[in-house]
Amino acid sequence: MEFNEFEKMDEFRDKPNNYMALSIVSTVLGLCSCIGLILGVIAIVMASQSSSKFRNGDYEGAVKAAKSAKILGVVALIVFVLHMIYSWYSIQQLGGWNAYIESIKEAIDAAQ
């Protein structure tokens, strides 16, 4: 080991934000749509990888994994919002919440 390598080891970098909270929230909200759920789970994995890469000394890898977790979490949240807008629009097309409940009751009665 050369003397210059010891100087590099003294360099301290702060732990990057791994966006685990964003990943968990996007996974829970992603339960409304399959795509959001999958993206949220992948975001949790990437956030976890960010922490483990930082502990192992791979700062650049930790930053890349954290960035991926952030992007996936935000995309999952966007999918959730789009799904909610579509659901609201569909209910309004049926005539509102009461008409929606009635259509569900009619479908249940027809199935019996």
TrEMBL record:
Write out the transmembrane intervals.
20-47, 68-89
Gene Ontology cellular component annotations, sorted alphabetically: membrane
Where mainly located?
membrane
- Location of this chain's protein in the cell: Membrane
Reply yes or no: does the keyword Transmembrane apply.
yes
Highest taxon above the source species: Bacteria
The coiled-coil regions, if any, are none
Keyword Cytoplasm attached:
no
- One Pfam family it belongs to: CD225
UniProt-recorded name of the protein? Interferon-induced transmembrane protein
